[in-house]
Amino acid sequence: MNTAARMESSGDRGRIQISQVTADLVMEAGLARWSIPRSTKMFVKGKGEMQTYWLRKSSRANKTKDASMKSEMETLEEGDDSEESSERANEEANDFLGIEGMDKTERLVEWNVEVLTSLLEQIVGSRGDTINQITTLSDAERNIGTGGKTVLEEFTPIIQLKRFDVEELERRGRPTSICIEDEVKSQLRSYISSISEMYPDNAFHNFEHASHVTASVKKLLARIVNVDRGNGLGAGSPSDSVDLVDLAGHSYGITSDPLTQFAVVFSAIIHDVDHPGVPNTQLVKENTRCAQIYKKSVAEQKSVDIAWDMLISDEYAALRACIYQTEEDLQRFRQLVVNTVMATDIVDKELQALRKARWETAFSNINSAGELMDDGTESEDRKATIVIEHLIQASDVSHTMQHWHIYKKWNERFFMECYGAYREGRADSDPSKNWYRGEVGFFDFYVIPLARKLQSCGVFGVSSHEYLNYAIANREEWIREGEALVQHYLLKFNEQNAPLIAPPEHSLSTSVIHLSP
After folding, report:
1. Residue 132: its pLDDT value, please?
2. Which terminal residue of the chain, N or C, has fewer Cβ atoms less than 10 Å from its own Cβ?
3. What's the distance, Cα to Cα, between the start and end of the chain in Å?
4. Distance CA 464, CA 471 (A)
5. DSSP characters over 7-28
6. Which is more confident, 371 or 157?
7. What pLDDT is stored for residue 146 in this prediction?
């Protein structure tokens, strides 16, 4: 009776919790894949701590699910036409095809968990395969992000990355020799699953979008590695003949520090958590509670606070110990997350101007006083910081720089989200009136210049050419088909929603150029 009562009080809405005894029976029946161990044990009076499990949700026909999963993973890797990339996408998809009872979100959770796990192996390997408790960091964890500062106020133009000398790189453990404990994997899975549940069911800003952004980040980081040769995100594990010397020379230190890569991928996953489905300007206009707190970059700052508060809870202590072991690493991880997520606010003109100035400073080697800067560690850190910002920005709109059908799919979703907000009275003007012209402007003044920056920084190899070529091709295709597509979007939206939502009663005389997310 005590067990049943405790399980009922510790359950989650929409999920089935089972006891260890029930889980054992499921496993004995050869259906271990049906259950997921909870990351924390529960206390039952008279029995002590007990391990319980979540029961996976049932799925529809397996054939449909399998095809859908492979399609999702291939989509996430879109933009690389190479045979190697296609095989890699198929392998990643097939890893999850045999898992019955997983819905689309759960499969995306598993994919994200695998990506982060590979980086955790790299982090542990860089420390010499040691993971100690981090109870001494509890005060630092509680205090970080406090002190009256908002997330945006924590931003810094230069993040000091960790440098590894040649001997450290040669001693570094290989990912294949590192074993992440089951407790850590369970906590990571629980965390990403909880993050996925905090993404609203928006047409565009949802967990699938976050996963799509993560895939682009993964790909761009891997492309740095393909030049520098050596990183857990590349195709396969590094061979024994890999030369890890001078990783910092080409990538400004990004590839030699797995914590940096983990932070950027982590940021991609959490960057739109609890997104309201409307832009920051609308939140400020509505004077929402979050807008009162953050003033600007409202959605982005809220996402960081939500994800960070969850991460530093006791439930994820083992996961955090795997990510960082020192206060220095904790501070660097936090700073990377703040800078990376804040970079996804591409609408704020002031932030964009500051970002442009930092790029010009970093890559012209001339400081604000017009003096030639020393091409040393600080210069490399400056370049690394701004490259990471542009990497996440490109990934956030990566659909514009991929195959036409991928671009069209996400463009339609973003239109549905924006037009839906208008029909609900949460936008001043009808976005359909200017969607075609706005998208042309978005390509001309944001997407293509961004792709050119990826190319000019000399870090991403062939990917930068690929992104630029797709952006130019998609713009040309949009010029030909865009107006007809907007009419198709309108028709589709009205067919699905017209009986439910009445248009707002206000003037449509003002049209604005929309900005994609």
Report:
1. 72
2. N
3. 51
4. 11
5. HHHT--TT-EEE-HHHHHHHHH
6. 157
7. 67
Q: Above 70 in pLDDT, residue 408?
A: yes
CA distances 199 to 102, 209, 383, 446, Å, are 18, 10, 32, 26
* Lowest mean pLDDT segment, chosen from 2-11, 319-328, 349-358, 391-400: 2-11
- Give me the pLDDT at residue 224, please: 77
Distance from C-alpha of 471 to C-alpha of 445, rounded to nearest angstrom: 12
The token pair at 178 is 């590192």
Residue 474 in contact with residue 407, Cβ under 8 Å?
yes
Cα separation, 375 vs 364, in Å, equals 11
Residues 468-477: contacts with CB under 8 Å, at least 24 apart: 468/401, 470/79, 470/400, 470/401, 470/402, 470/403, 470/407, 471/400, 471/401, 471/443, 471/447, 472/448, 473/404, 474/400, 474/401, 474/404, 474/407, 474/443, 475/440, 475/443, 475/444, 475/447, 475/448, 477/404
Using 50, 70 and 90 to split pLDDT, how confident is the model at 10?
low
Which DSSP category does 56 fall into?
P
What secondary structure does DSSP assign to 300-327, as a single string?
HHHHHHHHHHHHTSGGGHHHHHHH-SSH
- In the block, residue with structure tokens 């000398």: 165
Distance CA 448, CA 467 (A): 9
Token couple for 378:
């600080």
Please give the angle made by the CA atoms of 262, 263 and 265, to the nearest 5 degrees. 65
Quick one: which of 48, 54, 46 has its CA closest to 26?
Answer: 54
To which residue do tokens 């894949």 refer?
33
Count Cα neighbours of 316 within 13 Å in the Cβ-side half-sphere.
20
* Of residues 162, 508, 148, the one with CA closest to residue 332: 162
Length of the chain: 517
Burial class (CB in 10 A: 0-12, 13-18, 19+), 315: middle
Buried b / exposed e over 270-302, threshold 16 CB at 10 Å, is bbbbbbbbbbbebbbeeebebbeebebbbbbbb
Residue carrying structure tokens 């701004």: 386
Binned at pLDDT 50, 70 and 90, residue 230 comes out as very low
* 27 has pLDDT over 50: yes
Gyration radius from the chain CA atoms = 23
pLDDT confidence of residue 126: 83
To the question of pTM greater than 0.85 for the whole model, the response is no
What is the structure's pLDDT at 443?
Answer: 98
373 three-class SS: coil
Read off the amino acid at residue 71.
S
The distance from CA 372 to its chain's CA centroid, rounded to whole angstroms, is: 36
Asked if the model's pLDDT at residue 436 lies above 80, the reply is yes
Closest CA to 175 of 76, 83, 244, 86: 244
Q: Across the strands, what pairs with 16?
A: 55
Distance CA 56, CA 98 (A): 14
